[in-house]
């Protein structure tokens, strides 16, 4: 990525600006804007997240917002209440008070003499969520949003659940926020009150994992903030973006289908990251795309948005399995509308002999009940639900997983097949237990027998009819269920095979059922429906992007480099298998503010062969901040286990000022399982 400093507008930076919101609180903002904006007001672009503008998202903020400001916008990075220097306490995600604060901030910004009254919101992940939710609240100054890697449905497509299963990333994310919430404001900005603010956060933020586990079905807790409940409340243009390696891809397609406003979607090969720093590559000039978007909707300049295709997607070529792709070969394709008339559903039936048989091919399928009972450790090579692509967190060779599943595959393809959209698997099955799950993987079987996972889906079978009102299965009774897989664009090459794998476990991607379950899947009655693209198969690119450009990052001094490792350990003596995830952000100093930041995290997920009550997940985070004699250190630890009836949480928090421990809390919680 090329960084530049020569912009059309000279910019000024306001390091810490107080914005009044609800409850008498003030939120802390960092603002970049054109130097002459006091005389010639400009639109505002707001990013509203809890990740600490001072040291958390600083690098990304500077390369992004300085660039946009240099092209004629006032860019505002606002920390949510209780985060960074913002006052108050952060006690959960997307509370109504948080959304109300965002609306208040938008009105305040629109009234500043350097703002022309027009505001846009952009953000990735939490910031993308907030853009959608606040757009649905319809504050008058908000004219358009860009939502990246976000969700319109907090239960169906967020880091907590998938298909009614409990995601392992629910624990992982709880560990991230548990740690973030222990961080104090910077005394250089808030003065002597920093410690009182810090103590208030340490004592008041709470154990979010407990709250989340108390809502194991799609109740009002998750419906709050899910704009899928009321798409029609969004009245402004929406630019929705994600990546095939991200956990939030499905949202882009639902927004394109269900919104009734000017909208466009962009999906690349990336993980959970902005496309100008996108990995796996190719990264693109996303900031240039943003400038066109904002110029059109905030400045009224015609940038051709009214004539653009609704969807641009990266059609991935076949590739060997790699948990750490740096680049995915493929090409950009476009669709004028979504759903597209160029997508044709093609069904492949599960046949005897474990074949996938194209419907209307004349080949016999037969009806046979085939059984699958997966080991508790199936899934250790599945990668992360929401890949950040900054370590080996993508799926590995599926031969490591498919041995514990039920497999169906086509003959060698006689021509290329391209899919774009959401594959759906329909299963006719029965279970020997009242509570069971199913995981389905769609893979590319290469000629050398390597197997690359293309996409996947999971379903808690008690949620087969309702996410809000799950019902236990009747053992031995046949059910017909649908398992939607994540949207994807993929080319299966001639000579390859298409494989579907079915398993009863996908640990630690999803928490396991309380007991080992055996499913009987009926051939002839079960099938996969692929969204096959019918035009330009293997043809030329239909869109192109320039290489990424950004502003210069802040000056830093690295003392200890970071490291990201995924390790699978197996102790053959006690039959314990463990996935260890090391997320070491290193130790470095932001030179301009003389602040040294250190972050180190380790997550572990383990299980004992044959024992479904042995699954165990732990997260440990250590964070440090230092400037001269001011030194802060916090440690958070969370352990989640379960038996047939309950989840058990054990958590610890320790905070140090210098060498003195100033805070110590522990939790020991029991939460009943609810159809999970």
TrEMBL record:
Keywords assigned: Hydrolase
Keyword field contains Hydrolase: yes
Lineage top rank: taxon: Bacteria
Presence of keyword Hydrolase: yes
Span of domain Xaa-Pro dipeptidyl-peptidase C-terminal: 291-529
Gene3D superfamilies (UniProt xref): alpha/beta hydrolase (3.40.50.1820), Galactose-binding domain-like (2.60.120.260)
Pfam families assigned to the protein according to its UniProt record, in alphabetical order: Peptidase_S15 (PF02129), PepX_C (PF08530)
Gene Ontology molecular function terms on file: dipeptidyl-peptidase activity
InterPro entries linked to this entry: AB_hydrolase_fold, CocE/Ser_esterase, Galactose-bd-like_sf, Xaa-Pro-like_dom, Xaa-Pro_dipept_C, Xaa-Pro_dipeptidyl-ppase/CocE
SMART domains per the UniProt record, alphabetical: PepX_C
PANTHER family reported for this sequence: COCE_NOND FAMILY, PUTATIVE (AFU_ORTHOLOGUE AFUA_7G00600)-RELATED, PEPTIDASE S9 PROLYL OLIGOPEPTIDASE
Protein name: Peptidase S15
Organism (species): Pseudidiomarina insulisalsae
């Amino acid at each position: 990525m090329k960084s530049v400093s020569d912009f059309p507008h000279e910019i000024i930076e306001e390091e810490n600006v107080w914005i009044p919101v609800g409850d008498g609180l003030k939120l802390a903002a960092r603002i970049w804007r054109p130097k002459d904006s006091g005389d010639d007001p400009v639109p505002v672009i707001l990013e509203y997240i809890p990740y600490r503008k001072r040291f958390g998202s600083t690098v990304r903020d500077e390369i992004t917002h300085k660039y946009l400001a240099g092209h004629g916008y006032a860019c505002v990075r606002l920390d949510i209440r209780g985060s960074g220097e913002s006052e108050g306490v952060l006690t959960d995600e997307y509370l109504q008070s948080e959304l109300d604060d965002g609306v208040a901030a938008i009105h305040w910004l629109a009234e500043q003499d350097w703002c022309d009254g027009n505001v846009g919101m952009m953000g990735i992940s939490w910031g993308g969520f907030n853009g959608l939710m606040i757009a649905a609240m319809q504050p008058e100054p908000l004219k358009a949003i860009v939502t990246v890697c976000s969700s319109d449905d907090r239960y169906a497509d967020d880091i907590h659940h998938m298909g009614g299963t409990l995601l392992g990333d629910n624990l992982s994310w709880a560990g991230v926020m548990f740690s973030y919430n222990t961080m104090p404001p910077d005394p250089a900005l808030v003065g002597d009150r920093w410690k009182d603010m810090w103590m208030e956060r340490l004592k008041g933020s709470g154990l979010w994992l407990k709250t989340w586990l108390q809502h194991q079905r799609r109740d009002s807790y998750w419906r709050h903030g899910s704009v899928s409940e009321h798409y029609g409340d969004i009245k402004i243009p929406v630019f929705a973006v994600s990546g095939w390696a991200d956990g939030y891809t499905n949202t882009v397609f639902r927004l394109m289908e269900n919104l009734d406003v000017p909208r466009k979607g962009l999906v690349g090969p990336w993980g959970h990251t902005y496309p100008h720093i996108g990995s796996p590559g190719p990264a693109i000039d996303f900031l240039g795309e943003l400038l066109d978007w904002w110029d059109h909707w905030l400045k009224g300049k015609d940038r051709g948005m009214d004539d653009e295709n609704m969807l641009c997607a990266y059609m991935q070529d076949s590739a060997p399995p790699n948990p750490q792709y740096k680049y995915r070969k493929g090409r950009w394709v476009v669709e004028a509308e979504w759903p597209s008339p160029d997508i044709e559903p093609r069904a492949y039936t599960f046949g005897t002999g474990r074949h996938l048989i194209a419907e209307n091919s004349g080949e016999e399928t037969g009806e046979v009940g085939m059984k699958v009972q997966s080991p508790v450790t199936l899934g250790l090579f599945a990668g992360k639900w929401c890949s950040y692509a900054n370590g080996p967190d993508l799926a590995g060779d599926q031969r490591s997983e498919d041995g514990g599943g039920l497999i169906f595959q086509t003959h060698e393809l006689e021509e290329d097949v391209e899919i774009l959209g959401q594959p759906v698997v329909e299963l006719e099955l029965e279970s020997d237990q009242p509570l069971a799950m199913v995981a389905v993987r769609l893979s590319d079987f290469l000629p050398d027998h390597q197997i690359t996972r293309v996409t996947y889906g999971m379903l808690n079978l008690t949620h087969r009819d309702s996410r809000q009102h799950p019902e236990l299965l009747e053992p031995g009774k046949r059910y017909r269920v649908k398992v939607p897989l994540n949207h994807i664009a993929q080319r299966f090459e001639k000579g390859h095979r298409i494989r579907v794998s079915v398993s009863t476990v996908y640990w630690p991607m999803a928490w396991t059922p309380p007991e080992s379950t055996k499913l009987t899947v009926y051939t002839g009655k079960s099938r996969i429906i692929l969204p096959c693209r019918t035009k330009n198969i293997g043809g030329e690119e239909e869109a192109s992007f320039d290489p990424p450009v950004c502003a210069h990052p802040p000056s830093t001094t690295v003392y200890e480099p970071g490291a990201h490792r995924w390790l699978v350990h197996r102790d053959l003596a006690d039959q314990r298998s463990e996935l260890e995830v090391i997320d070491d952000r290193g130790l470095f100093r932001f030179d301009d503010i003389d602040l040294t930041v250190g972050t180190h995290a380790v997550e572990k997920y383990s299980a004992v062969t044959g024992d479904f009550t042995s699954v165990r997940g732990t997260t440990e985070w250590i964070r440090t901040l230092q400037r001269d004699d001011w030194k802060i250190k916090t440690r958070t630890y969370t352990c989640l286990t379960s038996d047939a009836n309950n989840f058990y949480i054990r958590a610890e928090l320790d905070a140090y000022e210098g060498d003195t421990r100033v805070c110590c809390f522990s939790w020991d919680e029991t939460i009943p399982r609810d159809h999970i």
